[in-house]
Design goal:
GO terms for molecular function: glycosyltransferase activity. The protein has 4 helices and 9 strands, in the order E-H-E-H-E-E-E-H-E-E-E-H-E. The protein is α/β, with parallel strands linked by helices.
Length: 171
């Protein structure tokens, strides 16, 4: 296997994609007073935090709450926890946020946390959608849709979590 890495998004492009996703969230939910962003730990939560700040700047009259879901991604059954009360999502729109959508398993597990919560609607937002879905979940908002082969790996680097400049790499 090759050690070659190809830059697919740089810092500025990630910022631009984040702004575009925030606008799409607002346009899709223009009548909502409150939206709950649910970030999947770790990088999905960092991305959700960024989206929350952009949304607050674009629509300061609205409320954008944030929850962090930690999922045991390697387990075959749902093992997850939330850093707050999921009741804040009751009868609201929630946007499940992650950095990369590959098979859909992580987003499916994130969805599982809210099965017993009455929601207005649930949407998904990802920075990169790889289109290798094994679960019937798709990104409602995405920065980049990328067709890759299964052996390729997408790595997203976010400064708040990784301590390096933002970038997305294909290897």
């Amino acid at each position: 296997m090759s050690n070659k890495r190809t830059l697919i998004l740089d810092k500025e492009q990630i910022h631009q994609k984040s702004i575009r996703i925030a606008y799409q969230i607002l346009e899709d939910n223009f009548e909502e007073e409150s939206i709950v962003l649910v970030g999947i730990a770790d990088r999905g939560y960092v991305f959700a935090t960024r989206l929350q700040q952009i949304l607050r700047d674009l629509a300061p009259q609205k409320s954008f709450e944030l929850l962090k879901v930690t999922i045991a991604k390697t387990k075959r059954k749902l093992e997850a926890s939330v850093d707050g009360s999921i009741t804040i999502a009751e009868n609201k729109v929630i946007v499940l946020v992650d950095d990369v959508l590959n098979s859909g398993r992580t987003l499916a597990y994130g969805l599982g946390m809210f099965l017993d919560v009455p929601l207005k609607k649930m949407r998904t937002a990802v920075l990169i959608d790889r289109s290798h879905h094994q679960f019937p979940l798709f990104s409602d908002y995405y920065g980049l849709k990328l067709s890759t082969i299964l052996k390729e790996h997408v790595e997203v680097v976010l400064s708040e979590f990784d301590g390096e400049e933002d970038a997305a790499w294909l290897s």
